[in-house]
Amino acid sequence: MPVESKDRVLILKGVCTVEDAEAVLEWILEHPGGELDLTQAEHIHTAILQVLLAAGKSRVRPPQDPFLERVVRIGLSSAK
């Protein structure tokens, strides 16, 4: 499963599809001060990125993939 919750951290792993977007949204709503860990994500569907942008999440550990890291960093910095 690509979405795993530990305490106040949501971890996205591997390939995260559109089906995972709802779980990410629900977790963010339940944990507004929580942190997202994307370091193990290999692919993040744009629906998940849209959830992150709409939520204005600032506590995000970026993906290790350089392209994904740049997309997340630019997207989240423009959402502030």
Description:
By secondary structure, this protein is an alpha/beta fold. It has one domain. The protein is built from three helices and four strands. Strand 3 (35-44), helix 2 (46-55) and strand 4 (60-61) form a beta-alpha-beta unit.
**What is the element string, with H for helices and E for strands?**
EEHEHEH
Given helix and strand content, the structural type is alpha/beta
The DSSP helix count reads 3
Cα-to-Cα separation, first versus last residue: 30 Å
Short characterization:
The chain has 80 residues and is of the alpha/beta class. It contains three helices and four strands.
Give the tags:
single chain; 80 residues; alpha/beta; four-stranded mixed beta sheet; 3 helices
Topology:
Layout: E1 3-6, E2 9-16, H1 21-30, E3 35-44, H2 46-55, E4 60-61, H3 66-78
